Amino acid sequence: MSVQPAQHQPSLARPEDLDELQTCLEQADALRRRRDFQQSLKFSERARQIDRNNIHALYLTGWNLVDLGRVAEARPIADRAIALSPGHPQLHWLRGFILLLQGEYEQGWAEYESRWHIDEMGLGKNRYAQPQWRGEDLHGKTILLHPEQGLGDSIQFCRYVELVRQRGPAKVLLATPPELERLFARSMPGIQLVRDREAIPNFGFHCPLMSLPLALRTTLATVPSRVPYLHADEAEVERWRKRLSSHPGRKIGLVWSGGTLSVQNITRSMPLVMMNGLAGIEGVTFVSLQKGPPAEEVAQVPELKLLDWTAEFKDMSDTAALICALDQVITVCTSVSHLSGALARPTWTLLAYAADFRWMLDRSDSPWYPTMRLFRQTALGDWETVIARVRQELEADFNVTRASRPC
User: Do 182 and 251 share a domain, yes or no?
Assistant: First the structure.
């Protein structure tokens, strides 16, 4: 992220070093935009040496350390930046991200609210004149819950919708992207769905979905983890099962890329050819769940023998039906990962070395999705080792299954 907090502290740089300071900050910014965090860190650290009070240098260094997986080192830098300049939301957003990674949810969710005050993040379109709900009594009230970021965020945090309804009881309006409308309508029959940007009925409170953990005081111990909380169309699931029945072995869905517009996509995704290490596993049929331009890569990797019916998908309800007909899903960090977890399907999520805050640090499980396993890179950009481990685990599972069959 290249959002820059303003500098209000007096510079400690010597006059003769000011040009070098500016050059270092510009280089660090440019390298971060290219996702070269290691080189960016060198320049941001040099800027800190020149001026230890420089807020921009502290901010860049903090994020570079986070993106290099050195979260424990980033935290005191974020703390120092906030001590020097407590009014900057960018710095609180950085600290919130760190706290959530470390599982310190109570303070982390509070700090994460600073995102609403960062104009460059473009979240202002989701603001309303009505007050944001922060846990007040909802008895007899109407509340609008609304998404703010991607489909995966909506899927992960819609688990809170029924909890909000029960708090009143209250009337809940849920602003829903078209891709999720059929799935949400089936899964939350007591909730009134409204389309994004359409006329919305009167309401007394609003709350972004990703602010609900704060409003409901979620800690690591109280994450609402009951699954499934989303449900596929059973008739569609059965149709997919029949279609898959002519193909041998375990049916495993694959996703190798997230949305291509996300700045994180370059680190969280891989080209399909890097999954070629899964080709030829005995007793497995792979099925593509990949949408968007990366779906075109299927033809480039014939060794995987991927079944691909994604052109038939109209929305995430169709994706959910196929997922429920499969035995397992293997996916990078994208909306399908959340969808499969919300459907309580066996899900293996492949994570970049410095993963998003929702996956925390070092864990191979997720408090959000009980049926999910996490496979993390052990070095920056090293998908080969992740795929090798996945293959090893799949082959071990096959051997156990085969050994347990009666003679």
Answer: no
